[in-house]
Every structure is written in C-alpha cells, then in structure tokens.
Design brief:
20% helix, binds zinc ion, 8-stranded mixed sheet, 41% strand, 2 domains, alpha+beta, 20 strands, 6 helices
Length: 286
Amino acid sequence: MAEENINSRDIPNPIQREVRQRCGFGCVICGMPLYEYEHMEEWAQVKRHVADEITLLCDQHHREKTNGLLPKETVYEANKNPFNLREGLSKPYNLHFSGNEACIEIGGNSFTCKDEGYGTAMVPISVDGTPLIGIVLADGHFLLNVVIFDEFNTPVLHIKNNQLFYSAEPWDIQLTGTNLVIREGHRKILIDFDFQPPNKIVINRGRFLRNGIEILVRPTNILITNNSCLLSGNHAHNCHGGLIIGHHEKPIGGFFGMQNIPRYLGNRKEALKFEREVTKNHQNMT
Ligand SMILES: [Zn+2]
C-alpha cells in the first residue's frame, strides 16, 4: 500500500529514527535515555506522522505535558535545542545491577565471578590498559563499567559504575526494554547489549574497537580480526582478566593474553574468511 495508514498511531521506524537523531537520543527537556515519541500537536487533531512534528519526552515530562504543567511552548523550544545536543552527552541513567555474583556472556563465551567477601574485580575485555568491559563486586554492590569507542577511537558510550551515558555522535542509539543498540549506519551494528539485571549482561553482537584493534562479537564466537584469533565456547570463572590485548602498565592476569598484535594493518579479509571456514566446519561436525 503506497498510502500510509494515517489512522495508525504506530510511528513508522524510519520516522522514529529520524526523530531520535534530531533529538540526540533522549528527552529533549532533560536528556533521559528512556523516552516516548510525542506528537507536539495532539494526535487526535493531526492524525499524521511527520518527523518534524514529533519529539522525545521522558515519562515525567510527558506526563507534565499531558497534565498541562509543562507548556507546549516549552516543549517546542526544547525540541529546537534538545538537551543532549546542547550538552554533548546524554543525562546519566542508572542501571539496577546488584548482588555478589556476576555473569557476562560475550559471543557465547562466558565470564563469571563471585565475590568471596573481600571484593572482586573482573575485566572480560581490555585493550592497552583500557578495560572495555569491567565489573567490581563489593559488599553486594555490582558495578558495571563499559566504554565503547567508534572507528575514530572516540568514546561514544560509557557505563561508569552502572551509570549509562552516551554522546549524540553515533548514527543511532536505542534503548528498548533491556536492549541497548548502537548503530554506525543502516544495518551496521556497533554494539548490542542485553542488560539482564540483577547480575547478567549478554553481548551477542558487536564491534569493539580500540587503538587499531577490532574485536567482532557474533552470537557464537568472538573474532579478533587483526590476527584471526577466534574464541568460542570458553568459560572463565573467577579469572581476573579475560581477553587482555596490548600493553598494560599494571599487568592483568588473563585467561587469554595477547601482547604483540598487528594494528590497523591486520588482514581483516583473511580473518573473516578464516571465521567462515571454522564456523562452517563446526556446523558440519555438529
Ligand atoms: Zn525529561
């Protein structure tokens, strides 16, 4: 059907994305990463989905607008100059992790640890002294730390002690339910996290980048394209370090350490071919 069903309240995906990009992936008033799509003019009157007429509001600001406590004019003003674009970063959102056990699944490999009462730290992935994913367990606190870099080595998303915030630079960022996806372009996923509070995080898809290292995460394996290293089905328990790549001033004992690894010039094509062959053989065997 060429004509869009104007009676449907469902906003088509491309229009939603355009609104997210324009609003900096957060409530235009306060920057909160949890938001709703709001027709600035009442839906009952306009009955159409035009990206320019839709904005993002968090629960609180949406309710305030509905109740008449937040004037329409203020929403229009904020929509022209959204919080996250003004600040350069989203408002931090606190993830609700807790407990004394942690499980991080990355491409079918699992990293688990248990706090035995004296505090425990676990670093599943670290490159050149920068933990890309790390966890601290202490006194029932579960603190998740993540930093995601883009192709230009610029951090685009942080989780610092459970506080999630991001820049408005990426092409798309979407937190839907427990699922956080950052895209670099159409159908180009940079990272796909599934937060499973109280104590689990699953990463089924992603591309960890840092200083010329590229770590690809697929549902069943991790591939380091620089040296065609493929990790599949590993389980590390109470192992301080996981995949530890490059130079670390304070050495981290890891179950998989790689100090010398080619940067940037790693043969990505060969690595992808190797991955295809190995996973094909694996499928044939099972
Ligand atoms: Zn808000």
